[in-house]
Structure formats: structure tokens, C-alpha cells
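Human:
Take a look at this sequence-structure pair and walk me through the C-alpha cells.
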Amino acid sequence: MRISACGVLLVAVVACGIDRGRAEPPVKGVADFRAVIAKAKARVFPAVAFVKPIVEDFKAGRKMSHEIAGSGVVISAHGELVTNWHVVRKAVDIRVQLSDGTCVKGTLVGGDKETDIALVRLAKRPDKAPYAHAAFADSSRLEEGDFVMAMGAPWGLSRSVSLGILSCTRRILPNQSEYSLWLQTDASLNPGNSGGPLVTCEGKVAGVNTLAAMSGGDIGFAVPANTVKYIVDQLRLHGEVKRSWTGVRLQPLNDFERNTFFDATEGVIVAGTDPQSPGRRSGLQAGDRITAVGGAPVTARNVEDLPAIRARLGSLEEGKAAALSVVREGKTLALSLTPRPKGAVEGEELDCPRWNMTVKTINQFDNPSLYFHRKKGVFILAVKYPGNAATSGLSAQDIIVKIGETAVTALADVKAAYDKALSAKRDERKVVVEVIRDGLTNHVVLDYAREYEDDE
């Protein structure tokens, strides 16, 4: 059977969701479908912004400033802009170009690395007019096959719209976000689209575009609108998202990846607990099945159900005991879990230009392999090539134990040792650095007598 172009477009209109009572009555035909797309674009496109931050980067073995390009969407008349955390991370200056060409300055209100969402406050428009802004959709009502538009600034080209469908509304991406699912789309996403809106046919923001596959076809991912709304509310209040840490690792009842299936229909399995964590202190054991947290039932039948339970644990009040209902070997137990603040999820950084290296504090969540060897300390983030640190034999990921006579447990210790080293006479510019490398202690003589030219 042959399907005409009009028939294909009619199917597309149905996929927009407008026949499910979410917006206007159904429309038919080529012209009507184009009108739906045009109307949706008109509602959001004026709120799309081109974001160009100047960021500081320590990954080349020295502090460097450079400009990057990303996207954003204005969500309020007084100039709140949502973008990705990775777009404005470590920004020292944020320039934003609006859809009408107006340029304004942005100030970072706060960001959340865990969900890759950031909130920026824009300065008043030169003409004092209110900002064009977009509204969020209820992402829980989205369905696979819904048509969506990706808006933003791919490759720094300032304005772009691409059309596609929602390929999956509950995608789990390992090692990307433990607290949220993702929207998957085949609308074209490229570098620079990060932070821009994924838009429904009703002209609302379904999510914030964040990730894209650079090969293998158009596969892009967006943070769902409902997650973004929660994060934005937290950033408005606190400038950050405050989460508790329990150290409880979870597993669904039906774990297809591990080919493990538990004979139960309710609860979530404890895969294990981190050492010295609140979860371990509570008495939880691997194989336990948690059925309720704080009196509220929890169930993860599949892996896609885990982020909501992790978010539930993360929202527990720090320092306050929460009741757990646990099934162990057929018996129901009542345990008490007292979470602690999760705190920072990334360490601070320091540039040591004379040594031609940068260092960073060890963080439990960002550097778990280093944290295993040293719970509190500093490691070498990067060394410059050529440079004194590299020539002397120091390497990235070395944990610094001691510099000369200075024991190192914090950035301030490295800074003190560095300042002292700068005052040394030229023929005395050597210092012994004790490091842990691959679990073994090494002593390296750092010779920093040579001055390397800055090749910026």
C-alpha cells in the first residue's frame, strides 16, 4: 500500500500529541502541520540564547582561559536562563546573545554537576523590556514518537532548529546521572546545542539538550523538564542542590544486564554499601530488599526505576534518622538510616606555573580510585609538556604526600610549599616531592630552575 506525503504528515501530527487532549484539536494536511511547527517555534525560539562563556581550565598543566560556545533558554520575564552546567562550569565571564541580537551579561546563580543543569541570571536588557521566555512542559506526559524540535547554537552558529521525534522517554545512561532519567531524540544535536531546549509541538520545553552521539546516527539526550524544574527551584533557593549521602548501592528486582532476577514484586535490592558510609552503619547488607524509606514504599522493578529511589535517598534530611523497612531472608526488619551531607562532588584546583603543573583536591565522588588510597589530600591534575614537573618525572594522578618538609593534605599546603619554593635561590631550586603512584610511594626530585616560555 502506498502512503502519500500528506498521510505521513498526518501521522506526524498525531504523534505531536495534540489528539491526546494536551493542546489544540487535531489538524490535517501539509499546511496545518507546518502551522503547528511554526506556532510551536514562535513560542520558544525568541527565548533561545547563544551562550559564550570565558572559562578557566587547568587540564593542560597550567591555568588557561578560553572561550566556549553553548546554548540556553530564558525561563522568566526577569531574565533567568537555564543551560548546562558543563557550559558555564568555571566561567569567569558569561556573554549571552538573545534571539533579537541583543547582547547581555550573565551571572551564574548556581549549577548542579549531577544533572548537568545550571541557572544564570541575565542583566537587564538595554531597552529595559521584559525577556521573552518559554514555559516548561510536564515531561511525565511525553510519549515515544512525539515530535520535538531541538533549538540552540550548534557549532557556534547562533541559531538553529532541527526536527525529530522522542525515541525514548525513560532512558538510563550509566555514569551520566544517578538521579535522573533522560529523554532520547533523533533531532539533530551537535556541539554547541548543549543547554538549548528540546521543544514539544505545543511550544513548551520538554527538556534541556545535553548529550549527543558523534557517530552512529542522530542520537541525542536531554534532561527532562520535570527534573530541570526541580533543580532550578533548588538553585534559586540555595545556589546549589543539597543532597544527602547514604553510600547505599542499589539493584533492581529484574536486572537484565547482570542476568539476575529476584523473586519479588516490591522493593529494591541493596547491591552493597560503601565503607564507613551511613548505609553500612545502619546495618544494611548486600541482598537486603528495601521496601519503604521513611514510611513511603519504594520499588525498582527495572533499572529505569533506580534514579527516582536514589533521588529519594538524596532528599533525606541530613543528620536525621530515617526509618527503613527491609526484608532479609524472608523476615521484615526495621532499620534506621542517618544520612550525612554529600557536600562537594568535585575538588578545587590550583595552578603552580613555576613547577609547570596543576593540582586538585581529592574528592570521594570525583576521584574514587585516589580516595581509596588517601581520604584527604591533593593530586596532580596535569603537567605541562615540556615543563619542570614533566621533566622531573612527576605525572598526572600522582597523589602528593609531602613537598620538601611540608606535609600535604590540602591545597593550602601546596600553596605554602610553592610560595616558599619561589623564594629559593636559583641554584637551590630543587625540592623532593613524595607521591603515591598506583598505590606505591615514590620520591621525585622536582628541579624547577629552568624557565619555560609560555606558548599561549
Observations:
- The longest strand covers residues 160-171.
